[in-house]
Amino acid sequence: MTDTAHHARLVVVGAGFAGSSLLRNLPRALRGPGASLLVDRAEEYPFIPLVHEVAVGRIHPESVCFPIADLCENRCGFLRAEVTGIDLESRVLDTSAGEVGYEHLVLAAGSGPARPPENIAEHFQLFWTLEDALLLRASLAEAWHAATAPARSAGELSSGALTVAVVGGGATGVELAAEVAVLFEYLRKRAVRPPAAEPRVVLFEATDRLLGWLNPYFHEVALEELGKLGVEVRLGTPVEAADEASVDLGEHRLPAAMKIWTTGIETSPLIKNLPGEHDATGRVAVDAHLTLPGYPEVYVPGDAGLYEDPRHGQLPPTASVAVQQGPWISRDLGRRMSGRSRPPFDYFDRGYIVSLGPESAVADAVGVRFRGPAAQALYRSVFLYYLKRSRDRVLATSDWAMERTLGRVGFGRPRGTGKPQAG
User: Fold this and answer.
1) From the CA atom positions of the chain, what is the Rg in Å?
2) Which of 181, 241, 307, 325 counts the most CB atoms within 10 A of its CB?
3) Residue 65 lies inside a defined structural domain of this protein
4) Region at 115 (left for phi over 0; alpha for psi -120 to 50; beta for the rest)
5) Cβ(410)–Cβ(421) under 8 Å?
6) Domain end: 302, 328, 349, which one?
7) Which domain holds residue 93?
């Protein structure tokens, strides 16, 4: 073993769904500082599935963040650092805080957003992190305030001042488009004066289906529900050109002050540089035990790993997959250390839920498909369950309950003024 500044029997990179669920289920032999070490570059971890609700003020940002140190208490050590490279032969990580040696390594590094083509990247905002959500929230509040300011006429506003163009018809794009459309209706009902520009939400999808990796039922319901909310869905419409004020669609131009790119995921260079087969997003192929072929001590779960399930085919990069893989790896480590037999990873398809605004969703729960308020209730229940602490569950529930009485965070109006409240 190379002499390193840090060393642990088990090193976990990333405190996301796979990494955190693994650490909560560590076998006894790997519990405690010195036995296990978590490496992450952040102090807090945001609950990414709910950041679209932060963007429209339905949830306070503090309700979806937890300190990583709390996860590690009485479980493992915590090194706040960025991993810059891996020496697989020497079993050493290169990090911004020095070298880290390991016996077993879990690369739960997750993924990031796919980026727009370079020629238009500067004109689009990505939507992935809590910071992205807060930036969009500020843009929406500022645009609405400008459009409803006293004596403001449509001629004084730029064309498309209240138009939001969302590119990408996956779960992120669909959920965000629905939430923004509901936000505009919420603000319209509470406005002292009507906006001088027409609020619009336009969702672009390059293929002929929304939510293309799910059953067609999801596409059909999403298309219908988005239509009811006033979202303009344009299928078969790839976006390849844009400028600061608009999206160029070839034969015509859509003025849009706010343009959001939500076309998928991309893994980090750390994962892309691993040996083995990779897909177009950079995910690396893993074997039946979720380990890197040729390196059985290295697990790659969650969004970073590409696993071909014997029954379900290639598993998607979703939280529902990651939260099964994390605890399974913990059990597999326990079996390895005790010399027991090791069955392959067995994925149980619990189904999927996609939110379609605060009152509706579409779900497939263990083969049962349904929609509407009941699906939205299930959506909230599932994500409350997966929030890290009981405190966060209480805060999120309170945010949802108080929205009707206290208004939305960042979009309220102090009495006697036309300016949105900070929050």
Assistant:
1) 23
2) 325
3) no
4) beta
5) yes
6) 349
7) 6-41+81-113+265-349
